[in-house]
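Single-chain item
Fold in token form
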Amino acid sequence: ETVCHQVQEWNEQGEAPIPVMVNVSPRQFLRPEFLKEVHAMMKQAGIPPGAVGLEITETTMMQEPGRARRLLEQFSELGLSTAVDDFGTGYSSLSYLRDYPIHALKIDRSFVMGLPEDEGALAIVRAIIAMAHNLGLKVIAEGVETPDQAGLLRELDCDYAQGFYFSRPRKAAVIQTLMAGGTPLPWPDPDKVAG
């Protein structure tokens, strides 16, 4: 609810819409009322489709696969994008990447931390990016803390990245000031950003 109202406030003030992702726990996601609640909050705040997305873990999807798939399809119909958080740390079949309406994979920070020196981590990150792109998914790297990590991820064609290299967590008012001032961040390259 807080995210929906914040996005609407930014929209009313004329800021360029930016998608905001919300972490959702398995308990929240699988609650029968959750879809209706999210839909009602979006409608009440008057935010456009695509302005809010959900981050869920592989574990969440595997608890009740059939139900999770139906919920993801319904959320997608509402215009919410979905990202698999902490990708690469779960113990599940990769078939859900093909069969579920997922829009992005978030590479777990445990793989990013070893970059660029750790050849095993590099191989895994490279494989995740290639696999995701072949499936039409975006890739977000978590936990980027150094220019070397950011540069390598850019070379590997990673779509987005987050971490302390770009910014510590900020309050909504500070983010609004940054957006209004057009403050550039070191990533992503404007030519690289896709809708």
